[in-house]
């Protein structure tokens, strides 16, 4: 098995994710968290956007004045990110590397202050190993912004639409070219991996805790402003947080290494 490369579905991904209310809501909730996180960090950061795709988040970081390294295993995604950076006039603050997230360390001149790792973990074969690789790229005191596809949300969505047999069979993906991620992740498993490596989790947010469950799909678009207000109100509290289609976790790498008292 190999990690998923988006070269063959880049256009479909852009059209069906970034260009919909799904993408708009995801970015809105994500940036609520990122704005709060940035307020706790230095005014100018070295940022790694690992698996940065078309560069929406990386380019915005560059617009804020940060130095961004964006890597992706997909050459097509790198080209799209470069085009967007040029269009926004931020190419001077960005460096693009055709590399997987787990191999990016060899291209970095020094550890970074902030790592963005959004909607990638669920596409890799060995998620825990990738998180360890990113830990090694982060300076002590630095922060991680991790967003992953939530297995709880996938189960709930399929129960809502009556896909009982699919759930009973373990929700195994059988079509490679669909946009549904390969490996939905249980939140508690991801939290355990992070803490086991040494990160201190500072925040958890559910992303699209209501949007995907609406029976009337027109409400996603026609009632978007009200929907965003309600998502914002409930997405950081249980039980809604753990039912988001994605979960966004912020974590820091302590200045001092964790002591082992065993």
TrEMBL record:
GO terms for molecular function: S-adenosylmethionine-dependent methyltransferase activity; tRNA (5-carboxymethoxyuridine(34)-5-O)-methyltransferase activity. Its EC number is 2.1.1.-. It comes from the Bacteria. S-adenosyl-L-methionine binds at residues 26, 51-52, 72, 101-102, 118. The keyword Signal does not apply. Pfam families: Methyltransf_11. The keyword Nucleotide-binding does not apply. Residues 48-145 form the Methyltransferase type domain. InterPro entries: Cmo5U_methylTrfase, Methyltransf_11, SAM-dependent_MTases_sf. It catalyses: 5-carboxymethoxyuridine(34) in tRNA + S-adenosyl-L-methionine = 5-methoxycarbonylmethoxyuridine(34) in tRNA + S-adenosyl-L-homocysteine. One of its GO terms (biological process) is tRNA modification. Belongs to the class I-like SAM-binding methyltransferase superfamily. CmoM family. Catalyzes the methylation of 5-carboxymethoxyuridine (cmo5U) to form 5-methoxycarbonylmethoxyuridine (mcmo5U) at position 34 in tRNAs. This is tRNA 5-carboxymethoxyuridine methyltransferase. It comes from Dryocola boscaweniae. The lineage of its organism: Bacteria, Pseudomonadati, Pseudomonadota, Gammaproteobacteria, Enterobacterales. The gene is cmoM.
């Amino acid at each position: 098995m190999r990690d998923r490369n988006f070269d063959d579905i880049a256009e479909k991904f852009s059209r069906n994710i970034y260009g919909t209310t799904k993408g708009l809501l995801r970015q809105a909730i994500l940036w609520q968290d990122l704005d709060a996180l940035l307020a706790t960090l230095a005014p100018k950061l070295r940022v790694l956007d690992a698996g940065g795709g078309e560069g929406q988040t990386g380019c915005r970081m560059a617009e804020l004045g940060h130095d961004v390294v964006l890597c992706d295993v997909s050459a097509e995604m790198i080209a799209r990110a470069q085009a967007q950076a040029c269009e926004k006039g931020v190419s001077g603050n960005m460096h693009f590397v055709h590399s997987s997230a787990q191999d990016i360390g060899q291209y970095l001149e020094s550890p970074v202050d902030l790592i963005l790792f959004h909607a990638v973990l669920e596409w890799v074969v060995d998620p825990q190993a990738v998180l360890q690789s990113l830990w090694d790229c982060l300076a002590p005191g630095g922060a991680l912004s991790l967003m992953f596809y939530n297995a709880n949300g996938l189960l709930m969505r399929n129960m809502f639409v009556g896909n009982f047999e699919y759930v009973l069979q373990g929700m195994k993906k059988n079509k490679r070219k669909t946009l549904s991620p390969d490996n939905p992740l249980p939140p508690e498993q991801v939290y355990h991996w992070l803490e086991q490596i040494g990160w201190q989790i500072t925040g958890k947010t559910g992303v699209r805790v209501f949007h995907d469950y609406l029976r009337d799909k027109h409400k996603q678009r026609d009632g978007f402003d009200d929907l965003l207000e309600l998502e914002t109100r409930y997405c950081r509290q249980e039980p809604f947080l753990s039912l988001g289609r994605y979960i966004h976790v912020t974590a820091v790498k302590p200045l001092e290494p964790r002591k082992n008292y065993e």
